[in-house]
Design brief:
It contains 10 helices and no strands. By secondary structure, the protein is mostly helical. The chain has one domain: CHAD domain (Alpha solenoid), CATH 1.40.20.10. Helix 1 runs antiparallel to helix 2 and helix 3 packs antiparallel against helix 5.
Length: about 300
């Protein structure tokens, strides 16, 4: 079943179903294949689950706190085995769009091929087994949850918090433009991407479009984050390549980062044009219309 509520089920049942299904699929992803793509899928499941728990935070604070902590831990345990691949892929995208200087800069990729000796296949297998066990145990617990029926507050208050935080994070990123502030904005945008996907049946044309635009914004901010990581590693460890090459690298990285941040600002300005209270008033109207349709 898809990661969204259905017209023929109560909101509480839809939230419970998504928690159970995503937990089970997370376990199946990592058990089926310990490769990078499986870990990537599992981390996406963790982000979906945490987005649902953030929706539930005002109505079920203890459940939300415990669930968010669990899937944050699982995501972090697996992330080290994926981050290296993501960084190398980001460098290759960087070189491909660097124009004529790309041929000079591609020699720097060797810096990103220093594997961490602690990240052994045995450690990966251990973390995969532990993550799958934790996810399956969580799925069994979630099967008996009683989250409530169709109260708007079951998700409305959590969505309001997410939207407010994402809107504030955008302002913070441009007031204090550092990789950390843009990464924080990215995380809040990812929450909104997953939450609007779950809520899409409230009005598929509207929420489907919102979900796609939040996803596009998250991709831009993800490219910004990955390239910022590349920048940090290369400038810290690339001394052997000489100052001229590193200066050329830094100039080109900064040019591309500036491009990402201009794109993100144009899209973010549209997505967060509404004040939080007005956004939620509109969502509440969609909810009431859906409730009428159900009767």
């Amino acid at each position: 079943m898809s990661f969204e509520l259905r017209i023929d089920e109560s909101l509480g049942a839809a939230l419970r179903r998504c928690l159970v299904e995503q937990s089970e699929r997370l376990a199946a992803d990592v058990e089926g294949d310990e490769g990078g793509e499986a870990i990537h899928k599992a981390r996406k499941r963790c982000k979906r689950l945490r987005a649902v728990f953030r929706l539930l935070r005002p109505a079920h604070p203890d459940l939300s706190r415990e669930g968010n902590a669990l899937f944050r831990e699982i995501g972090r345990k697996l992330s080290a085995f994926r981050d290296v691949d993501a960084t190398r892929a980001a460098f290759r995208r960087f070189v491909a769009t660097a124009g004529e200087c790309g041929k000079v800069l591609e020699q720097l990729e060797v810096i990103l091929h220093k594997d961490d000796p602690a990240l052994t296949p045995e450690l990966l297998a251990e973390r995969v087994a532990e993550s799958a066990r934790q996810a399956r145990e969580a799925a069994r617990r979630y099967e008996t949850l009683d989250l409530g029926k169709n109260q708007f507050s079951l998700f409305g208050d959590g969505l309001l918090i997410t939207y407010k935080k994402a809107r504030a994070a955008m302002r913070a990123a441009y007031d204090d433009p550092h990789p950390e502030t843009f990464h924080e904005w990215r995380k809040r945008v990812k929450d909104l991407t997953n939450q609007t996907q779950f809520l899409a049946p409230l009005w598929p044309e509207i929420f489907g479009g919102l979900r796609k635009e939040f996803d596009d914004l998250g991709d831009i901010l993800g490219d910004d984050h990955d390239l910022s990581v590349v920048r940090s590693i290369v400038l810290a460890e690339g001394e052997a390549f000489g100052s001229e090459v590193l200066e050329l690298f830094a100039d080109e990285v900064d040019r591309q980062l500036d491009g990402f941040r201009r794109q993100a600002h144009l899209l973010g300005a549209r997505l967060f044009a509404e004040r939080s209270e007005l956004f939620m008033r509109r969502v509440h109207a969609y909810w009431e219309a859906l409730e009428e349709e159900r009767q």
